[in-house]
User: What shape does this take?
Amino acid sequence: MSARLDAQFLTSASSIEDAPRDAVPEVAFVGRSNSGKSSVLNCLTGQTKLARTSKTPGRTQRFNYFEARNLGRLVDLPGYGFAKVSRRVTSAWQRNIVQFLEQRAQLSGLVLVMDARHPFRASDLEMMRACESQQLPVLALLNKSDKLSKSAKINSLRAGSATLASHHLESAHVLTFSARSGEGADEARDWIRTKLQSP
Assistant: This one.
């Protein structure tokens, strides 16, 4: 079993301009506002309140930075695509996220969290293409896999791999995950550690 990521809150920023100004390696988390992104972060760190969870999608509206002891940083990016706010606001969030992916020099990987029942929507693929253009590795987590049958999980994983291949997303890896049961957590932690420790 892979040890949990030992993390604590560092700071919050409204845009990349307000981000910490250093060269500490980072892995960012992004996903649609109903994907369970905050629950994934809490699962990987073994905490219940590190990242704020809510029954109302779209609560993460800032860039939240967490120190991962002896590794680097985890960054919780704003959710997109479902929040109960204006389209103008959600479009601004998405532009800020893409800008972050393109300009944050110390970013060494992205964890894209998706609902396993509704993965790889247009906005998800847009994020992945932005990463591919930067040669930024992506871990595509098919979260909430506990809501699928065993055969549905297998089919979801196969379909995910086929989607990555058809869109030529060569820097991405897909994994079934459940923040509720911990399925896939060890593999996800190992992937994150590898990216943060890469030269």
Remarks:
- DSSP finds five helices and seven strands in the chain.
- The longest strand covers residues 107-115.
